[in-house]
Amino acid sequence: MAEKYFKAWLLFQQQRAPRIHHLDLLLEDCLHLDSSFEALLDDAVLLKRYYLTTRYPDDLPDDVSPEEASAAFQSASRIRRFISARLVSD
Question: How far apart are alpha carbons 24 and 52 in whole angstroms?
């Protein structure tokens, strides 16, 4: 979800949305346009730990605790809220 929101914001800013899945690189592209995206750095780093290894259902890790899953969900939700607010106000 976070990847799609970063890409949506880039497209909304009339920028190219790179065909990548790396949240840190997408966030870097957003930061070049708006320094307030720095507030999402910790969330992007946390989610990046899970993203590439869980891209496909058969790759889901067995060792993710409920607390880790909750933290990842909260990070993704913060990214969604942050970018959604900018898509409406810009």
Answer: 12
Q: Residues 26-35: what's their mean pLDDT?
A: 97
Give the chain's largest Cα–Cα span: 41
What is d(CA 2, CA 61) in angstroms, rounded to the nearest whole number? 19
| Nearest alpha carbon to residue 3 among 42, 60, 44 | 44
Cα torsion at 17, 46, 73, 81 (round to 10°)? -50
Q: 21 CB contacts (<8 Å, ≥6 apart)?
A: 3, 51, 52, 55
Q: What is the DSSP letter of 62?
A: S
Please write the tens of the pLDDT for every residue from 36-56. 999 999 999 999 888 655 556
Say how far apart CA 13 and CA 36 lie, in whole Å. 15
Cα separation, 50 vs 76, in Å, equals: 12
